[in-house]
Structures are given as C-alpha cells and as structure tokens.
C-alpha cells in the first residue's frame, strides 16, 4: 500500500504539470473531513441525492425490477457512511425483499462504522462489507451468479476522467449479467455560482480536506511538506463542466520525500492538480456509456435539477 502510494506520488510530482491522486484523500482524517463536507451548506450534492432517495424510494425500488421471491445482491461501490442507502435498505427490508447488502469501500474505518451503525438501526439487513479499491473489487463481483443491483452514488464517478469512467463502467458491465442494474449518482452541469462554493466553502473545510493530502504524505511517506505554504485553489468552468482542485505553492520551495528518495521543486504559484469532479448531462453520460454494455433506462432528479441518479441496465 505504502509502496503504491509512494510510486503514484513520485509519478505525479515528476510531471511538468504536477498531479496527486485524489484517492489518497481518504485516510481517517480525510474520511472525517469528507463527512463534514457532506454536511456543509455549500455542498448541495449530498442533500440533493438524499432528497431523491427520501422522496422517490418506491420508484427507485421499482426500477430495480427485483422479484420479492428471488434473492439478489445489493452492492454499493464507495459506500462511505451509507446515510442515503439506509433509506433504501429500510424500505427493501420492510417490503420483504430477499437481499444481502455488500458495501465496498477503500476505507476500512468507514466500513466498520457503517456496519456498526446498520447493525443497530437495521438489524434485519444482512451486511457483508468488502474492503478494497473498487477497481480491484470488480473481478470478485462475478464470483456469485445471483442477480445484482450495483449502487455507485454521490457522483463518485465524477472523480474519474471520462476515459477512466468509461473503462470502469465497461469492466463493471463485463462482470455483471444481462438484466443486472446500476444506479449511478451524478452531479449535473450547472453554473459556477452554485458549483464553485461547494468546492470552496466559507469555513475552509474543503481546503483542509485538500491540504490533508500533504499531512498524509508527511506522516506516511516521510515527506517535508509545509502545509502552511500551500493554498487550496479550486476552479470551475461551466463549458467544460469539471470542478478542479489544486494546491498552489505559496512560494518557491523544495520538498523531500524519504519514501521516494527524491526532492521535488515548486515555483511560486505552481499548482499541483489534486482532483477533478466532473459534472454531467445526458449527452456526456451517453458518450461515456457508448462502449459499455449499459443503457440508460430511467433518470431520477431532485426538484432543483441539480443532481441525477441514472438507472442503467446491463444489456
Ligand atoms: C467524493 N467526491 C464525489 C467528492 C466530489 O464532490 O468530487 C469529493 C470532494 N472533493 C471536494 N469536495 C468533495
């Protein structure tokens, strides 16, 4: 794990335009900061998707086309704290569907918390947590031959480039069977005055989340980043529809990383690109799906039309 982390960091910081992979945001501190982000007034994504899950629960369940007499697996990729899903789990359980809930997450910490909270709130739901990177978990999905409904919520897909998203969905489809479903949560394209504050909140929580990556490299890779000398700098342009987070070097500086055995040099104002958060519309999603086995069968939106959960069927 550490070797992989060091390797990715070295590759990213050796590029002419420096990058760091956003998946490393999520250590214990990063998980807690992300929970704070989801509760921020500016971060509309979670509230909008929660609205869809609370007000359209029956329609969502109907879209799964599950048979009450046939067992199925409800797999959630990147489950996080599972708040939205618990609405669905409660309704599925009350209505007598036969299923296991398999949350997959890279954060062991989040999975443990999720399991404990579901054991208390929904003791009748069988929870089988899977710890790991969801790219790596794809292969194990086809080990069972039961019908499957996969949840990939929260616009987590937006943290992938379109090419990576397309490849990921292709591989997911290849590991599913005809008729299986994917419920895909996507943040929709909208103006900068709504999107940008979600990545640049007044209290500076997103800034802390971004800068936490520097603390993590210091703690785990023996890096010498001075977190006070980097500034959180997000950007968003509606034409492109992608929010981008950067860490901007406040001055000319050099940073040593023990785990890579190298020193990296930063000019004043030089940016490290740490994350993309893609926003979608039907056309963009259709292009991403073009080479996959999925087709869009339904779309659920919140009342502001800020967010959409697309129901995709595996052909
Ligand atoms: C997890 N992911 C969908 C979040 C997003 O909106 O891209 C991560 C995040 N980064 C900054 N704020 C939230």
TrEMBL record:
Alphabetical list of InterPro entries matching this protein: EgtD_Methyltrsf_superfamily, MeTrfase_dom, MeTrfase_EgtD-like, SAM-dependent_MTases_sf
Entry keyword Metal-binding: no
Keyword Transferase recorded: yes
Domain of life of the source: Bacteria
Keywords, ordered alphabetically: Methyltransferase, Transferase
One Pfam family cited in the UniProt record for this chain: Methyltransf_33
Domain Histidine-specific methyltransferase SAM-dependent as annotated: residue spans: 6-313
Protein name, per record: L-histidine N(Alpha)-methyltransferase
Species for this entry: Psychrosphaera algicola
